[in-house]
Amino acid sequence: MDEEHRVLESVVGEFASKELEPINKQIELEGIPKELKKRLSSQGFLGALAPYDLGGASLDRLGYSILLKQLASASPSVAFYVFLENSFVIKSILLKNEVREKIGLISGGEISGTFYYSHLLNFLEPGEIKKIDSKLTGKLNAVINSEANLFIVPADDGKFYLVESGFHPLDEHEKLGFRGLRFSPVKFDTSIKDAIEIPLNVDELIDDTHLPISAIAIGIAQGALNKAIEYAKERSAFLHKLKDFQPLAFGMAQAYSQLDILNEYLINIAQGERDIKKELMLKIISIDFARDVSKLALQVHGGYGYLMDFGIEKYYRDAMFLSILGGNHLDEKMKLSTLIFQEKAGWI
Amino acid sequence: MDFTLPEEIEEKRKKVREFALKEFTEERKRYFDENEKYPFEIRKLAYELGIINFSNPWDLLVSIEELCRVDPGLGISSFVYAFGSEILMLFGSDEQKKKYLEPVQRGEKIMGFAVTEPVAGSDVAGIASKMEKQPDGSYILNGSKMFITNGSIADYVLVLARTAPPPSEEKRHHNMSMAIVEMKWPGVSANKLKGKMGVRATDTAELVFENVRIPPENIIGEIGKGFYYVMTFFNITRIYVAAMSIGIAQGALDMIVEKAKKDKKFSSQESIQFTIAEMATRVDAARLLTYRAASLLFQFNPDPVFTSMAKYFAAETATYAAETALKVTGLDGAITSLERLFRDSKIMEIWEGSSEIEKLVIYRMFMKKMGVE
Predict the structure, then answer these.
(1) Does the CB of B48 have a partner CB in chain A at under 8 Å?
(2) Residue A166: which domain range?
(3) Domains in chain A: how many in total?
(4) Among residues B340, B286, B239, B323, which one has the least CA distance to residue B24?
(5) How far apart (Å, rounded) are the C-alpha atoms in residues A244 and A237?
(6) Residue A346, in any domain of the structure
(7) What is the value of pTM for the model shown?
(8) Predicted confidence (pLDDT) per residue in B265-322, tens digit
């Protein structure tokens, strides 16, 4: 990693420990506060992928991965929010010249946006928006960041539309993870003249998320494991520190080694040419790893890990939610199998 | 070898399932989880309808399974009001049973069991609470307890404390005793713990004892035998935690089967079929391990190896099943009570002896059986 990216890693790491760690409980209970969105904006994080001329930070793939990883290690909710704004909303808006000015509002933290893709996740009841006469009308279920001011949503004509009015979020769903973001159905009744068609290729957009989702997964694992290692150095049982017991020490050492290897792989891929196969491989492995490590970290903390105050249980919940929102497992495993076998595979 | 349960127990299983499906509505599950409230009315109803029957252990075991299958938070709250009662049954005096145990069995009072401390969880012998004998024969209790089920709603708790220093490092488990402490006594305070990841309808608290005077008649059994009483108790309750875990695992399996019924594309894929096959196998294996351990216990011949195997395996099966079901059902599972089963399941690997402690017990007792001291 070059000096520039090292500095970025250090700056975001410091931001995460000073600005996110102290208010983690507030984020989980009340959502991401407005003041924090402003600070994320002033650091350039909300416009990480936006070009300089639109007020963005124009980060490259490695810089963006480092940003998400470091944020996720302290607050997976905040990392997912930054990811949603950049990888989906800003990237979609960039495809339509007439609405590019909205990027300044998003990267400035003045408004927030969301992008609906739950219907692509093998979800039985996503709901639907119908284009009827002069209106976009209907309901979508499982909308993440459903309190957004701007939505990019699919309609029954197969196109995506940007809408800024004529919607309201309904009561929240069960809230497994990313509790800093509202998660609920949203009802739409929007005039078609206020809806702007976005000419996007959703498959390409999703393919571009493999690397950032891997970065969030690795960040979750890193945050959970760091806390577990610290705890194992402090906590005693049976007259010894937890770190002195083989099963715990070996388990954490193994996880540390795997984390280091995944991290190196992430840096390597992010710096190289686009390679969908490697990105998919990394994503599938990192998400499983995040779930396993966050579970290990919770177990090391015992009963305390089960309490929100210790800041561990959120990694376990968020890692699971990331594995659900991070892509369609079956489709992606079939895709990876086909890439590896170089012919159709894994379809029975 | 007969693997069937008596007909009346299977009938009871059906009755409890019907009760849980009717009373544990989606609204109630969500309300008590979100608000971290103990469901007093549901507990009362479960008692009045005869859902909880402490006089027949198989009846209790299958009832626990079925209640937790639908909702662990409400399910556990329905029967855990008698937590610790086995200690009084086995080691309490007749007077203690009459004064403290009978009102619990009648559903009038709530009991708790206070062993874990802020600095001593799995390591029971590491507790620091003390009971000091006074010239008048009473004891003065000082110390604090952590993660105490029913802590802020109990009428009384059974407390483990040191009555003398340990004779040596190797014998740290000596000189501990148990006493019944009424929560209304001066010097007793409870602080409800909020923000648990799961089983949020159950009550959990931190207890503080400051110069609490305990009359001698409230000491349970013999002075200095407390550690043994606790281990005996765990040999019983671990079976019931295994039953809770089987309930959770079965509940998660139910959810994935439900999705498979609705979504033929989903169920036609062999990776999903294998996942269901693996999960169904593990749930059944956990149930068989638990029933064997339970059978020995209920014939007054408990085997700690089988008990710990059952608790360890069933708890890991609960988290495995909840994680796997949620992972493969995706958003369909995440917006239903499967999400709560996932959060609830993890505590099974932690309380009543973590998986690590169960493995230690299995190893030590297994090797003893094999003639290795």
Answers:
(1) no
(2) 113-200
(3) 3
(4) B340
(5) 10
(6) no
(7) 0.96
(8) 999 999 999 999 999 999 999 999 999 999 999 999 999 999 999 999 999 999 999 9
